[in-house]
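Q: I have 58 residues here and want to know how they pack in 3D. Can you give me a structure?
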Amino acid sequence: MTRTNAHFKNDAIDALEKIRVILQAALFLTATDSERDASIELMGLAEEVAIRVLEASR
């Protein structure tokens, strides 16, 4: 099965939406030390997704 540019663009849009949701969750979790740690971890995951999108779009 061959993937078209439209598929890759849809994957990129989906990944960016996931980043948005992850960052929203990360910003919400800031009340306790464990929540701040979780927030930092979520931001790291968002960064990984963004990197994958950028690499896949090349």
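Q: Anything worth noting?
A: The mean pLDDT is 78. The chain has two helices and no strands.
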